[in-house]
Structure formats: C-alpha cells, structure tokens
Amino acid sequence: MAGILFSLLLLAVFLLMRGSVPADPLEPGAWLEGGTGNVALALNLVPFAGVAFLWFVGFLRDRLGAQEDQFFATIFLGSAVLLLAMLFTAAAVIGAVILAFHAAPGTLINSATFHFGRGLAYGMVNVYLVKTASFFMITTSTIALYTGLTPRWLAHGGYTVAAILLIGSYFIDWSLVVFPFWVLLVSANIWFERDHGAQQAP
C-alpha cells in the first residue's frame, strides 16, 4: 500500500508542477506572477510521498529477509535515501523561490538569484534525481531477479525503464514520471501475490 500511495502522490506532484512551471529552466519566471497555488500544494505533498517511499523500501527489505544480499542491500538503501534527499532539496529550493517572490516580487523576477534557484532545482530533478532513480530501479530489479521478489518480466521491465531514464532524460521532458508508474506496478504485483497466496493457503 505504501508503494501505491507513493506512486499516486508523486504523480500528483508531477502533474501539479507540470501544469504550472514551464519545463524550460531559462524562462523568466512568469509562472510566479500567474499564481503558485498548485505549486504550493505539490510541495506540501512531497514530504508525504517521501514517507510513503521509505515505508515501501522498508517493506521490500523486510520481505527479502534472510535472502537480502549485503552488497546490493547497501546500494539499494543508499540510492533510496539519496533519491529522497534530492527530491526534498529540490522542493525546498522551489519553496524558497516562491517565498522570495512574495517578499520582493519586483526584485526577484529576472534576477540572478531566481535563475540560480530555478537552475539548481531543474538540474537536481532532471539530471541527478533521474539518474539516482534509474540506479535504484536497476538495483531493485537485480535483487528481484536473484530472489524472485517479483516476476522476471517485471524485473526486466525495470531495466528497460531505467534505460529510458538514463538516456531519455536528455531528450524527454518529465521522463521521471515513468518511475512512480514502475513503483506502482511492483507494489500492485506484490500485493496481488500476497493476497493470492493467502487465499491458496490451507
């Protein structure tokens, strides 16, 4: 359930941000003057998505149990924590830009400070966060193949989606949106298998 909740919350964050903030990091900041209600709502959803993601990671580790390999477990957990740290930092930067705009709207627009904050958040999400998410997916898919955590087709699908993130992020705006869809598939599959196994048990 935590993985499904994370997926839905992160998708909501992406949709709210996409509808308000232009993809071009060099835009002059006109979206600030048009209202930031949707952006503020998206930023308030980010912490809840992060907690749900941590719960999801904890559940996966608990489900692996004694099958967990220390090497892959370290990379798996480290990439998950790094992913959340960058997501939270990017959200905090955007929040700081909005607060600075409300404090001095005439000064911030087209200023170097605005472009720095905007570029920092853009680079963190569209370069580093995307690559960390793809690394998390590769590690999780590898663990799934060795332990049978998910069906093989889903693990191989994780490699495919990770490749899309690694390569496509340079050419496709908001390519990160495939990550929550993958988490949704993994979570739904584990939930279905658990319920199916409970029904089959004597």
Question: Can you characterise this structure?
Answer:
The chain is mostly helical. The chain contains 8 helices and no strands. Helix 4 packs antiparallel against helix 6.
Keyword list:
mainly alpha; 202 residues
In short:
By secondary structure, the protein is mostly helical. It has eight helices and no strands. It is elongated, with a radius of gyration of 19 Å.
Structural class: mainly alpha
Mean pLDDT, nearest integer? 82
Percentage of residues in strands: under 5%
Distance between the termini: 25 Å
- Globally, the shape reads elongated
What oligomerization state is this entry in? single chain
Q: From the alpha-carbon coordinates, what is the Rg to the nearest angstrom?
A: 19 Å
The total beta strand count reads 0
Helix and strand topology:
Blueprint: H1 2-20, H2 30-33, H3 37-64, H4 70-103, H5 105-108, H6 112-147, H7 152-168, H8 178-200
Helix pairs in contact: 1-3, 1-8, 3-4, 4-6, 6-7, 7-8
